[in-house]
Amino acid sequence: MNGHTTELVIFTLLFLVVSGMGFVAARWRRPKDIESLHEWGLGGRNFGSWITWFLVGGDLYTAYTFVAVPALVFGAGALGFYALPYTVVVYPLVFLVLARMWSVSHVHGFVTPADFVRARFGSPTLALVIALTGLVATMPYIALQLVGIEAVLKAMGITGHLPIIIAFAILAAYTYQSGLRAPALIAFVKDTLIYIVILAAVIYIPAKLGGWGSIFDAAKAKFDASPNPADGITLTAANQLQYITLAFGSALALFLYPHSLTGVLASKNRGVIKRNMAALPAYSFLLGLIALLGFMAIAAGTKPVIGATGKPDTNTIIPRLFDQMFPDWFTGIAYAAVGIGALVPAAIMSIAAANLFTRNIYREYLNKQATDAQEAKVSKLVSLVVKVGAVLCILLLDPQFSIDLQLIGGVIILQTLPAVALGLYTRWFHRGGLIAGWAAGLAAGMWMLYLIPNPANGKAHFGGSAFALKNLGLDTPMTIYAGFLALAVNLVVSVLATLAFRAAKVAEGEDATSRDDYFADEGDPRVKELDLSAAH
Amino acid sequence: MPDDKSDRSPWYWLLLVPVVIPLMTFLYNADEPRLFGFPLFYWLQMAFIALGVATTTLVYRMTRRRP
């Protein structure tokens, strides 16, 4: 073997235990009938505060986050810390929005954001646009979870693709079997492991490196010596606007992803959601500490694994740091935490993508008379296809391509904000105006991303999300988050096009929702009794 | 509809505080003063988590519907 035997044994053992749980989950909370889509895809919609906290937390804070955020801090310093304000700002921002979404979805039986848009604006076309945007944004996200697992495997000296295929085959099998129950149950284990590992890391590693002060000093010395003017342990005049707009734009985008909504809709009532908005920042604290692992890696002189292309793979920085600092058995636990951390979001994302396809494409265009059982069957099959697609992405394409796609995904999912989030509050927009705004925002976003180079790896296009304002003729070194600017374009066009359509008297769609639908809570007769699996 | 069924309450305006404060970089974009070795940039932003939790919890409790 290669000196990583202990790590490998512990990693494999924990991975297998968790996989076993995934299969058992089908019997957890006793569904009477898992053959309907609500049952399989939304776990019966009866999750209480604790399960929702683990499920949504496990969904939003992914393995890729745990690997990529500290890698960004390692490379760029303060800018990478944007993940912290992003996850502080998001919960108060969506506190009311998600409660409204829960209510209207439960009155009308919506499973996806596109379901809502279709009913609200009476437009299957707009719904299709929203569904396709969601699918395109979610797919690379699933592939990225594999990048997280791969980083860990690489650090253990395993390079072939077979382990990834096995891991995802297991994941696919138990998601097929248990639906949303599997990730909900596994999230408990994942989070417990992650908390243990990170708490150990932030106590043990600084003690070995001479305390926090010297960790930050080492990072400062590295950035002071680097030729890049944008890095440092604080922000520069050029990247402050980027920091603010990236944090705010990411916060706006987070709950537009179909998979974040899946976790929210599975909760029992509005109170569960609101309590979770207050409790979920506990993960932000964890994320902040994880981000700082990047500085620890600088202080410890950690070197990333050199990839097959001969370039260093910065995603391996944190696994390497663990390997360097921890005893082997604990490194094994840490690696398992990251590996299992990839499974929870990958499962939820593939379920959300499958729901989108089934509800908004299959039932809308392919089989209008689909029964519940048919829908559930198609959904399960699509969830398999989506996962196979993600594996193929990693096997056939350069992983960099998935990272680029995910970057693009964040920019394009933001373009659904006017229809989905503003749509929860106002019916003022014309459906045609929203489609025009979406198209304009998308075009602007792609144009900006195309113009962004990445000098670090020599790419000329799609090199990041920091758009230089000097491209617009402004005499400033400042950069801004491309998605934020694209959303501004989208909003302006949506408003102007709405006025134009209305002036031209183009037909408005029918609004199937009414004002009271947005406040309905558990116990209201209009809130559908969808949960076939009453709690014990 | 009775008022308790709507989402209107002055308390909700308070939610703007933890949205706006963490985005004001001039508040925290400095190395000094350090706390336990953490530069201001890091410890103050970590402290904003507490601000977010406290505000959201307060708003939730003040607007909860009593059965």
UniProtKB/TrEMBL annotation, chain A:
<feature type="transmembrane region" description="Helical">
    <location>
        <begin position="79"/>
        <end position="99"/>
    </location>
</feature>
<feature type="transmembrane region" description="Helical">
    <location>
        <begin position="278"/>
        <end position="300"/>
    </location>
</feature>
<feature type="transmembrane region" description="Helical">
    <location>
        <begin position="155"/>
        <end position="176"/>
    </location>
</feature>
<comment type="similarity">
    <text>Belongs to the sodium:solute symporter (SSF) (TC 2.A.21) family.</text>
</comment>
<feature type="transmembrane region" description="Helical">
    <location>
        <begin position="378"/>
        <end position="397"/>
    </location>
</feature>
<protein>
    <submittedName>
        <fullName>Sodium:solute symporter</fullName>
    </submittedName>
</protein>
<dbReference type="InterPro" id="IPR001734">
    <property type="entry name" value="Na/solute_symporter"/>
</dbReference>
<feature type="transmembrane region" description="Helical">
    <location>
        <begin position="188"/>
        <end position="207"/>
    </location>
</feature>
<keyword id="KW-0472">Membrane</keyword>
<dbReference type="InterPro" id="IPR038377">
    <property type="entry name" value="Na/Glc_symporter_sf"/>
</dbReference>
<keyword id="KW-0812">Transmembrane</keyword>
<feature type="transmembrane region" description="Helical">
    <location>
        <begin position="47"/>
        <end position="73"/>
    </location>
</feature>
<dbReference type="Pfam" id="PF00474">
    <property type="entry name" value="SSF"/>
</dbReference>
<feature type="transmembrane region" description="Helical">
    <location>
        <begin position="432"/>
        <end position="452"/>
    </location>
</feature>
<feature type="transmembrane region" description="Helical">
    <location>
        <begin position="480"/>
        <end position="501"/>
    </location>
</feature>
<feature type="transmembrane region" description="Helical">
    <location>
        <begin position="243"/>
        <end position="266"/>
    </location>
</feature>
<feature type="transmembrane region" description="Helical">
    <location>
        <begin position="403"/>
        <end position="425"/>
    </location>
</feature>
<feature type="transmembrane region" description="Helical">
    <location>
        <begin position="6"/>
        <end position="26"/>
    </location>
</feature>
<keyword id="KW-1133">Transmembrane helix</keyword>
<dbReference type="GO" id="GO:0022857">
    <property type="term" value="F:transmembrane transporter activity"/>
</dbReference>
<feature type="transmembrane region" description="Helical">
    <location>
        <begin position="126"/>
        <end position="149"/>
    </location>
</feature>
<feature type="transmembrane region" description="Helical">
    <location>
        <begin position="333"/>
        <end position="357"/>
    </location>
</feature>
Automatic annotation (TrEMBL), chain B:
<dbReference type="InterPro" id="IPR021741">
    <property type="entry name" value="DUF3311"/>
</dbReference>
<dbReference type="Pfam" id="PF11755">
    <property type="entry name" value="DUF3311"/>
</dbReference>
<feature type="transmembrane region" description="Helical">
    <location>
        <begin position="12"/>
        <end position="28"/>
    </location>
</feature>
<feature type="transmembrane region" description="Helical">
    <location>
        <begin position="40"/>
        <end position="60"/>
    </location>
</feature>
<protein>
    <submittedName>
        <fullName>DUF3311 domain-containing protein</fullName>
    </submittedName>
</protein>
<keyword id="KW-1133">Transmembrane helix</keyword>
<keyword id="KW-0472">Membrane</keyword>
<keyword id="KW-0812">Transmembrane</keyword>
